[in-house]
Amino acid sequence: MSFAAIRAPLRRQALSASFKRPQLRTSSFRKYSTEAPPAAKSNTGLYVVLGAVVLGGGVAYYLYDSSSETAKVTSSALKSAAQTAKVATNFVPTKEDYQKVYNRIAEVIDDADDYDNGSFGPVVVRLAWHASGTYDKTTGTGGSNYATMRFQPESLHGANAGLHVAREVLEKIKQEFSWISYGDLWTLAGVAAVQEMAGPKVPWRPGRIDGFESHVPPDGRLPDASQGAPHIRDIFYRMGFDDQEIVALCGAHALGRCHTDRSGYDGPWTFSPTTFTNDFYKLLFDEKWVWKKWNGPKQLEDKKTKSLMMLPTDYVLTQDKSFKKYAKAYADDVDLFFKDFSAAYSKLLELGVPTQQFVASEAWIMQTVDEQTS
Questions:
Q1: Catalytic site residue from 129, 186, 204, 269
Q2: Where does the record place the Plant heme peroxidase family profile domain (predicted)?
Q3: What are the Cα distances from residue 340, in Å, to 30, 249, 320?
């Protein structure tokens, strides 16, 4: 008997035995849930496992419609179980499917006209970073698994100002590839942006699920640019990073710029803000930095051209003994920086995701657009 033939009776039996099915708000459900992925290879036990997933999906569908927080927690657990079941039966999109998403991301981030030097790449990297960097290793909350920045409490956190630009850009891709979760989309976009802007290859794998507003982490888990070394360590140690990884991740400031209407700070860190280099570290040590005289928050500017900026948290890397050791090493060796950034960024993007949800035991290396056309 085919799976299609048994699916409807199974769902009716499960639903009638537990509760009456209320009228469902399907538009809300579709907005925040990941649709079924493309068909994949067959598996001997697939129908049995998928039967359980369909039953769980029917329950999750009902629970999503409920306003009960307990119901939403249960629904998330069911979605996690469904993702795990898909992994177990290979009922997941292939690497080639995700490569197609990567390629569309590469096209979209370059179609920025005059926005920030003509690229959405830097703001997309920041979105992936901030969507993942809320993880707390003690409580196991936060991280990229639930893509909670879709919800207002987190989207309005001060550290996330301006990230609506990246979310709106990527929403177009979500509509085109509706089967991908927001968490996978945002983190894959962060990888694509780094790689397409001449940065290192970043190992990545899918498996994140979309959650609810109740999963939103508290404000204050992302770095405050006005603080010093103790604050930086508090933020990054909470996520599970050490001093070397902290300094490596700070190298993402080779990209993009600050905006007065977002963070209050102003200006780019480097002369090539759409190319991933180790210039952030080189400039920290090679330029003379002075405090900028202006009405905005405390920041530094290069004495020579007054066109570059550094945040107080950036300058700490030249003052703290442990941080300085790694920052100087990265300024002197771009290959070392690329290697260490790649490892730390890949780790960052996986924070908060249960291992059993990933579709592969080892992360993938996605090809750049140039590699596919050469």
A1: 269
A2: 166-374
A3: 39, 9, 19
